[in-house]
Protein backbone atom coordinates (compact mmCIF):
# COMPACT_ATOMS: atom_id res chain seq x y z
CA UNK A 1 0.00 0.00 0.00
CA UNK A 2 1.01 3.62 -0.24
CA UNK A 3 2.63 3.22 -3.70
CA UNK A 4 3.09 6.54 -5.42
CA UNK A 5 1.87 7.01 -8.96
CA UNK A 6 3.69 8.76 -11.76
CA UNK A 7 4.15 12.41 -10.65
CA UNK A 8 2.16 13.79 -13.60
CA UNK A 9 -0.64 11.22 -13.45
CA UNK A 10 -3.95 12.72 -12.40
CA UNK A 11 -5.08 11.28 -9.08
CA UNK A 12 -8.75 10.35 -8.99
CA UNK A 13 -10.82 11.09 -5.90
CA UNK A 14 -11.08 7.43 -4.97
CA UNK A 15 -13.79 8.14 -2.36
CA UNK A 16 -16.05 9.77 -4.97
CA UNK A 17 -17.67 7.23 -7.36
CA UNK A 18 -18.60 10.05 -9.72
CA UNK A 19 -14.93 10.67 -10.39
CA UNK A 20 -14.88 7.27 -12.11
CA UNK A 21 -17.95 7.87 -14.28
CA UNK A 22 -15.65 7.94 -17.31
CA UNK A 23 -15.20 4.17 -16.96
CA UNK A 24 -18.78 3.56 -18.10
CA UNK A 25 -17.65 4.17 -21.67
CA UNK A 26 -14.30 2.35 -21.71
CA UNK A 27 -13.57 -0.45 -24.14
CA UNK A 28 -11.69 -3.56 -23.05
CA UNK A 29 -8.47 -2.13 -24.53
CA UNK A 30 -8.95 1.12 -22.60
CA UNK A 31 -9.65 -0.77 -19.36
CA UNK A 32 -6.38 -2.65 -19.86
CA UNK A 33 -4.51 0.65 -20.09
CA UNK A 34 -6.17 1.94 -16.90
CA UNK A 35 -4.71 -1.01 -15.00
CA UNK A 36 -1.28 -0.96 -16.64
CA UNK A 37 -0.76 2.77 -16.07
CA UNK A 38 -1.21 2.11 -12.34
CA UNK A 39 1.60 -0.48 -12.34
CA UNK A 40 4.54 0.95 -10.34
CA UNK A 41 7.11 -1.10 -12.27
CA UNK A 42 5.81 0.17 -15.61
CA UNK A 43 5.87 3.69 -14.24
CA UNK A 44 9.48 3.30 -13.11
CA UNK A 45 10.62 1.72 -16.39
CA UNK A 46 8.83 4.37 -18.42
CA UNK A 47 10.51 7.15 -16.42
CA UNK A 48 13.95 5.66 -17.16
CA UNK A 49 13.02 5.27 -20.82
CA UNK A 50 11.70 8.83 -21.02
CA UNK A 51 14.90 10.25 -19.51
CA UNK A 52 17.03 8.41 -22.08
CA UNK A 53 14.72 9.46 -24.91
CA UNK A 54 14.97 13.11 -23.91
CA UNK A 55 18.75 12.86 -23.79
CA UNK A 56 18.79 11.37 -27.30
CA UNK A 57 16.47 14.07 -28.64
CA UNK A 58 18.57 16.79 -27.02
CA UNK A 59 21.62 15.44 -28.81
CA UNK A 60 20.19 14.34 -32.16
CA UNK A 61 16.99 16.35 -32.54
CA UNK A 62 13.29 15.48 -32.85
CA UNK A 63 11.33 14.77 -36.06
CA UNK A 64 11.44 16.07 -38.70
CA UNK A 65 14.95 17.31 -37.94
CA UNK A 66 16.29 14.20 -36.21
CA UNK A 67 19.71 12.93 -37.24
CA UNK A 68 18.60 9.32 -37.20
CA UNK A 69 21.87 8.01 -38.63
CA UNK A 70 23.73 9.37 -35.61
CA UNK A 71 20.90 8.29 -33.30
CA UNK A 72 21.24 4.67 -34.50
CA UNK A 73 24.93 4.67 -33.63
CA UNK A 74 24.26 5.56 -29.99
CA UNK A 75 24.18 2.53 -27.72
CA UNK A 76 21.56 4.22 -25.53
CA UNK A 77 19.00 3.81 -28.33
CA UNK A 78 19.17 0.00 -28.26
CA UNK A 79 18.91 -3.06 -26.06
CA UNK A 80 20.27 -6.51 -26.85
CA UNK A 81 17.77 -8.68 -28.70
CA UNK A 82 18.20 -11.42 -26.09
CA UNK A 83 16.80 -8.96 -23.55
CA UNK A 84 13.61 -8.58 -25.60
CA UNK A 85 12.09 -12.08 -25.87
CA UNK A 86 8.49 -10.94 -25.41
CA UNK A 87 7.61 -9.67 -28.86
CA UNK A 88 8.31 -9.64 -32.59
CA UNK A 89 10.36 -6.46 -32.65
CA UNK A 90 12.61 -5.80 -35.61
CA UNK A 91 16.11 -7.00 -34.80
CA UNK A 92 19.03 -5.06 -36.26
CA UNK A 93 22.41 -6.70 -35.70
CA UNK A 94 21.22 -8.43 -32.52
CA UNK A 95 19.76 -5.16 -31.19
CA UNK A 96 16.23 -3.82 -30.68
CA UNK A 97 15.23 -0.17 -30.40
CA UNK A 98 14.38 0.79 -26.82
CA UNK A 99 10.86 2.00 -27.64
CA UNK A 100 9.94 -1.32 -29.26
CA UNK A 101 11.55 -3.32 -26.46
CA UNK A 102 9.61 -1.50 -23.74
CA UNK A 103 6.33 -1.82 -25.61
CA UNK A 104 6.85 -5.53 -26.25
CA UNK A 105 7.74 -6.15 -22.62
CA UNK A 106 4.37 -4.74 -21.52
CA UNK A 107 2.33 -6.21 -24.33
CA UNK A 108 1.68 -3.47 -26.87
CA UNK A 109 2.83 -1.99 -30.17
CA UNK A 110 3.71 1.63 -30.94
CA UNK A 111 5.50 4.18 -28.78
CA UNK A 112 5.33 3.53 -25.00
CA UNK A 113 2.75 5.94 -23.53
CA UNK A 114 3.34 7.91 -20.37
CA UNK A 115 1.38 6.66 -17.33
CA UNK A 116 0.03 10.21 -17.18
CA UNK A 117 -1.62 9.72 -20.60
CA UNK A 118 -5.39 9.38 -20.15
CA UNK A 119 -6.31 7.55 -23.35
CA UNK A 120 -3.57 6.52 -25.79
CA UNK A 121 -5.84 3.66 -26.94
CA UNK A 122 -8.71 5.88 -28.01
CA UNK A 123 -6.33 8.27 -29.71
CA UNK A 124 -4.68 5.43 -31.63
CA UNK A 125 -1.28 5.64 -29.94
CA UNK A 126 -1.43 2.23 -28.26
CA UNK A 127 -2.36 -1.12 -29.78
CA UNK A 128 -2.29 -4.30 -27.72
CA UNK A 129 -0.44 -7.33 -28.98
CA UNK A 130 -2.49 -10.46 -29.49
CA UNK A 131 -2.72 -12.81 -26.50
CA UNK A 132 -2.95 -16.52 -27.13
CA UNK A 133 -5.49 -18.15 -24.81
CA UNK A 134 -4.09 -21.27 -23.20
CA UNK A 135 -5.70 -24.69 -23.49
CA UNK A 136 -3.45 -26.83 -21.28
CA UNK A 137 -3.00 -30.51 -21.95
CA UNK A 138 -3.47 -32.26 -18.61
CA UNK A 139 -1.52 -35.33 -17.57
CA UNK A 140 -2.29 -37.89 -14.83
CA UNK A 141 -0.68 -35.65 -12.20
CA UNK A 142 -2.51 -32.45 -13.20
CA UNK A 143 -5.87 -33.06 -11.52
CA UNK A 144 -5.11 -30.12 -9.25
CA UNK A 145 -5.68 -27.79 -12.22
CA UNK A 146 -9.41 -28.24 -11.74
CA UNK A 147 -8.98 -27.13 -8.13
CA UNK A 148 -12.69 -26.95 -7.43
CA UNK A 149 -12.97 -24.01 -9.85
CA UNK A 150 -16.26 -24.21 -11.76
CA UNK A 151 -14.69 -22.23 -14.60
CA UNK A 152 -12.23 -25.07 -15.25
CA UNK A 153 -13.26 -28.28 -17.00
CA UNK A 154 -11.30 -31.19 -18.42
CA UNK A 155 -12.37 -33.48 -21.26
CA UNK A 156 -10.93 -36.71 -22.64
CA UNK A 157 -9.91 -37.39 -26.23
CA UNK A 158 -8.83 -40.62 -27.86
CA UNK A 159 -5.80 -39.85 -30.04
CA UNK A 160 -6.11 -43.23 -31.78
CA UNK A 161 -9.36 -42.03 -33.38
CA UNK A 162 -10.10 -39.12 -35.78
CA UNK A 163 -10.20 -35.83 -33.88
CA UNK A 164 -12.66 -33.78 -35.95
CA UNK A 165 -15.83 -35.44 -34.62
CA UNK A 166 -14.46 -35.57 -31.08
CA UNK A 167 -13.62 -31.86 -31.13
CA UNK A 168 -17.03 -30.92 -32.53
CA UNK A 169 -18.77 -32.99 -29.88
CA UNK A 170 -16.58 -31.46 -27.17
CA UNK A 171 -17.41 -27.96 -28.44
CA UNK A 172 -21.16 -28.58 -28.14
CA UNK A 173 -20.80 -30.05 -24.65
CA UNK A 174 -18.61 -27.18 -23.49
CA UNK A 175 -21.07 -24.57 -24.80
CA UNK A 176 -23.92 -26.30 -22.97
CA UNK A 177 -21.91 -26.56 -19.76
CA UNK A 178 -20.87 -22.92 -20.00
CA UNK A 179 -24.50 -21.77 -20.32
CA UNK A 180 -25.58 -23.96 -17.40
CA UNK A 181 -22.85 -22.77 -15.05
CA UNK A 182 -23.35 -19.12 -15.97
CA UNK A 183 -27.09 -19.39 -15.36
CA UNK A 184 -26.48 -21.03 -11.99
CA UNK A 185 -23.99 -18.34 -11.00
CA UNK A 186 -21.11 -20.82 -10.66
CA UNK A 187 -19.17 -19.06 -13.42
CA UNK A 188 -19.05 -15.32 -14.06
CA UNK A 189 -18.97 -14.11 -17.64
CA UNK A 190 -15.74 -12.25 -18.32
CA UNK A 191 -17.15 -9.39 -20.34
CA UNK A 192 -16.91 -5.65 -19.84
CA UNK A 193 -20.67 -5.28 -19.40
CA UNK A 194 -20.84 -8.03 -16.76
CA UNK A 195 -17.73 -6.93 -14.84
CA UNK A 196 -17.78 -3.14 -15.23
CA UNK A 197 -18.81 -2.37 -11.65
CA UNK A 198 -16.17 -4.68 -10.18
CA UNK A 199 -13.53 -3.27 -12.52
CA UNK A 200 -14.43 0.25 -11.43
CA UNK A 201 -14.27 -0.70 -7.75
CA UNK A 202 -10.89 -2.31 -8.49
CA UNK A 203 -9.49 0.96 -9.83
CA UNK A 204 -10.82 2.83 -6.80
CA UNK A 205 -9.15 0.33 -4.47
CA UNK A 206 -5.83 0.65 -6.29
CA UNK A 207 -6.03 4.44 -6.13
CA UNK A 208 -7.00 4.40 -2.47
CA UNK A 209 -4.14 2.05 -1.69
CA UNK A 210 -1.70 4.25 -3.62
CA UNK A 211 -2.30 7.10 -1.19
CA UNK A 212 -2.33 4.87 1.89
CA UNK A 213 -6.05 4.99 2.64
CA UNK A 214 -7.00 3.09 5.83
CA UNK A 215 -8.79 -0.26 5.74
CA UNK A 216 -12.06 1.33 6.81
CA UNK A 217 -11.99 3.44 3.64
CA UNK A 218 -11.30 0.39 1.48
CA UNK A 219 -14.21 -1.42 3.11
CA UNK A 220 -16.45 1.50 2.20
CA UNK A 221 -15.62 0.88 -1.47
CA UNK A 222 -16.47 -2.82 -1.34
CA UNK A 223 -17.46 -5.25 1.38
CA UNK A 224 -15.17 -7.89 -0.13
CA UNK A 225 -12.37 -5.39 -0.64
CA UNK A 226 -9.58 -7.80 0.31
CA UNK A 227 -10.45 -10.29 -2.42
CA UNK A 228 -11.21 -7.53 -4.90
CA UNK A 229 -7.95 -5.71 -4.17
CA UNK A 230 -6.02 -8.94 -4.67
CA UNK A 231 -7.73 -9.37 -8.04
CA UNK A 232 -7.05 -5.71 -8.87
CA UNK A 233 -3.34 -6.11 -8.18
CA UNK A 234 -3.26 -9.25 -10.34
CA UNK A 235 -4.98 -7.32 -13.13
CA UNK A 236 -2.54 -4.42 -12.77
CA UNK A 237 0.49 -6.72 -12.71
CA UNK A 238 -0.28 -8.77 -15.82
CA UNK A 239 -3.94 -9.67 -16.03
CA UNK A 240 -4.60 -6.54 -18.07
CA UNK A 241 -3.30 -8.47 -21.12
CA UNK A 242 -6.26 -10.86 -20.95
CA UNK A 243 -8.61 -8.02 -20.01
CA UNK A 244 -7.83 -6.33 -23.33
CA UNK A 245 -9.39 -9.34 -25.11
CA UNK A 246 -12.68 -9.38 -23.20
CA UNK A 247 -15.87 -8.90 -25.23
CA UNK A 248 -17.88 -5.77 -24.64
What layout of secondary structure does this protein have?
Elements: H1 28-36, H2 40-60, H3 68-72, E1 78-80, E2 95-97, H4 98-106, E3 108-109, E4 127-128, H5 163-184, H6 192-210, H7 215-221, H8 225-243
Antiparallel strand pairs: 1-2, 3-4
Helix pairs in contact: 1-8, 2-4, 6-8
N- and C-termini, Cα separation: 31 Å
Question: Compute the gyration radius: what is it?
Answer: 22 Å
Number of helices: 8
**Order of secondary-structure elements:** HHHEEHEEHHHH
Structural class: mainly alpha
How is the main sheet built? 2 strands, antiparallel
Write down the overall geometry.
globular
Tell me roughly what share of residues is in helical segments.
Answer: 40-55%
Low-confidence parts: none
- Roughly what fraction of the amino acids lie in strands? under 5%
Strand order of the largest sheet: 1-2
Number of strands: 4
- Give the tally of structural domains: 2
Mean pLDDT: 91
In short:
This protein has eight helices and four strands; from the N terminus they run αααββαββαααα.
What report would you give on this structure?
- This protein has 248 residues and is mainly α.
- It has two domains: 168 residues, no CATH class; 33 residues, no CATH class.
- Helix content is 45%, strand content 4%.
- It has eight helices and four strands, in the order H-H-H-E-E-H-E-E-H-H-H-H.
- The chain has a two-stranded antiparallel ribbon with strand order 1-2. Strands 3-4 form a two-stranded antiparallel sheet.
- Helix 1 packs across helix 8, helix 2 runs antiparallel to helix 4 and helix 6 crosses helix 8.
- It is globular.
Amino acid sequence: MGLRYHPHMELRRWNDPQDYAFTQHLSAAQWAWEFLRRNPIYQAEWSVFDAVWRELEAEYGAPPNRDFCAWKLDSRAWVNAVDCPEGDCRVDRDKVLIECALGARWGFYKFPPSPADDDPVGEGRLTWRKVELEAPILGPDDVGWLGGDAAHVAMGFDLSLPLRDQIERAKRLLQLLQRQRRRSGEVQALSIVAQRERLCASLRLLDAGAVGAPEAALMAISGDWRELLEQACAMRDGGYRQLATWPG
